[in-house]
Automatic annotation (TrEMBL):
Organism field: Mesorhizobium australicum (strain HAMBI 3006 / LMG 24608 / WSM2073)
Transmembrane segments: none
Family assignment from sequence similarity: Belongs to the UPF0174 family.
Stretches assigned to the Ubiquinol-cytochrome c chaperone domain: 36-174
Domain of life: Bacteria
Any Pfam family: Ubiq_cyt_C_chap
Protein name: Ubiquinol-cytochrome c chaperone domain-containing protein
Length: 180
């Protein structure tokens, strides 16, 4: 037990988690989202894209047992630690962080429920509406929401085709968003 908690296995798991999280962040930072699809290049817009990609991995790992389930939980923990750190970097003080974290967690889980429902029903229009409502609530119309919904559906299919063994070994691959 001590070997698992403090030994090589813990360091290997940390390396896997770090690798997966870095790949999720890289996918969320694809410039086409911000330059061509009009996702706001703001802290909240970046939170939306990171949340969306975190959801996709969680959606893929749902129902898995053992190590995959553990990795899914550690990734969520890492995501919220990253959000906490980002809030602090934005200058939000110790008193304000818990309140904002609670709000952001509620936002994350509300969004993931909507995205999950639309993906499960293969409802492109429902997914488009959920993305528009969450990513661009200020926009009356957001034509690029349909492109983002297509990307999300493609990413979900691509992730579901990836072997669990590959993911738990530290590799998760997202499609490249096309700006054309």
């Amino acid at each position: 037990m001590f070997q698992r908690l403090f030994g090589r296995e813990r360091h290997a798991n940390r390396a896997i988690t770090d690798a997966l999280y870095a790949q999720i962040v890289a996918a969320a930072r694809q410039t086409v989202f911000y330059s061509h699809w009009n996702v706001p290049d703001t802290p909240l817009g970046r939170f939306e894209m990171l949340s969306l990609h975190m959801f996709l991995v969680q959606h893929r790992l749902r129902g898995e047992d053992g190590v995959a389930q553990e990795i899914a939980q550690v990734l969520i923990d890492e995501f919220f630690l990253d959000v906490d750190h980002s809030l602090r970097e934005l200058g939000i003080g110790d008193v304000g962080v818990p309140k904002r974290m609670k709000k952001l967690a509620k936002m994350f889980y509300g969004r993931t429920a909507a995205y999950d429902d639309a993906l499960e029903r293969n409802d492109h229009d429902g997914l488009t509406a959920a993305l528009a409502r969450n990513v661009r609530p200020d926009a009356g119309g957001w034509p690029e929401a349909s492109r983002l919904a297509g990307y999300v559906a493609d990413a979900s299919r691509q992730l579901s085709a990836q072997p669990t063994e590959s993911i738990v070994a530290g590799t998760v691959a997202f499609p490249v968003a096309n700006g054309g």
